[in-house]
């Protein structure tokens, strides 16, 4: 019994690592990039959402956290003020929380079309963290525009496109490859 449990953990770790790596590679494919961060990277969120869908909440949140750390290493956008508090807020809001919420897809594990609920929920939450960051940190770039309008349009311009593309491909996968959403358990010897 203990051997099967260990094999299951190893399988989940390898699978989650491969999905994080796939998401990270896809994040280098950029359709367009915003001047102060944020970009449309087609389907880079889908593998992270898949971790939660296949392995549950714990693995999903861990995968989202690792992906967030990799995103910071890939391209960190320093805040305009340069204070410690601003840097900490960027790390938490624009990276750890924004990408970590993708792991909440684990709430929909085992549901037939759970991915189609997880995508809009998780990506809307990701948008809210970026929106809050725009209000709290990036407001200097708003100019004469109300800060909330600036943050809404700036972050919405790339998040809506990203969500729509992910939702379309997610729907196709749910219909054509439902086996992707079932977790394989290790065989007992």
Q: What's the layout of helices and strands?
A:
Blueprint: H1 2-26, E1 32-33, E2 39-40, H2 46-55, H3 57-74, H4 84-100, H5 114-136, H6 147-176
Antiparallel strand pairs: 1-2
Helix pairs in contact: 1-2, 1-3, 2-3, 2-5, 3-4, 4-5, 5-6
Strand order in the sheet with the most strands: 1-2
Largest sheet: 2 strands, antiparallel
Instruction: Please bin the fraction of helical residues.
Output: 55-70%
List the uncertain runs: none
CATH domain class name: Mainly Alpha
Number of helices, where a helix is a run of at least 4 consecutive DSSP H or I residues: 6
CATH topology (fold) name: Arp2/3 complex 21 kDa subunit ARPC3
**Nearest-angstrom radius of gyration?**
18 Å
Supply the CATH architecture.
Orthogonal Bundle
- Please state the oligomeric state of the protein chains shown: single chain
Quantity of strands, as a count:
2
Domain count: the total is 1
Structural class: mainly alpha
Mean pLDDT: 91
Shape: globular
- H/E series, N to C? HEEHHHHH
């Amino acid at each position: 019994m203990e051997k099967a449990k260990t094999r299951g953990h190893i399988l989940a770790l390898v699978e989650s690592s491969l999905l994080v790596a796939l998401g990270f590679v896809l994040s280098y494919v950029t359709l367009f990039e915003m001047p102060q961060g944020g970009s449309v990277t087609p389907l880079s969120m889908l593998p992270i959402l898949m971790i939660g869908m296949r392995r549950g909440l714990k693995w999903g949140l861990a995968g989202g956290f690792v992906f967030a750390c990799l995103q910071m290493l890939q391209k960190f956008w320093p805040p305009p003020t340069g204070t410690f508090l601003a840097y900490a807020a960027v790390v938490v809001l624009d990276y750890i929380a924004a990408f970590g919420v993708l792991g909440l897809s684990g709430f929909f594990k085992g549901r037939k079309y759970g991915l189609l609920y997880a995508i809009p929920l998780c990506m809307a939450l990701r948008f809210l963290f970026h929106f809050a960051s725009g209000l709290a940190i990036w407001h200097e770039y708003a100019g004469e525009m109300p800060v909330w309008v600036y943050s809404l349009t700036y972050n919405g311009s790339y998040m809506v496109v990203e969500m729509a593309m992910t939702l379309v491909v997610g729907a196709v996968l749910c219909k054509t490859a439902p086996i992707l959403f079932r977790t394989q358990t290790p065989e007992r010897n």
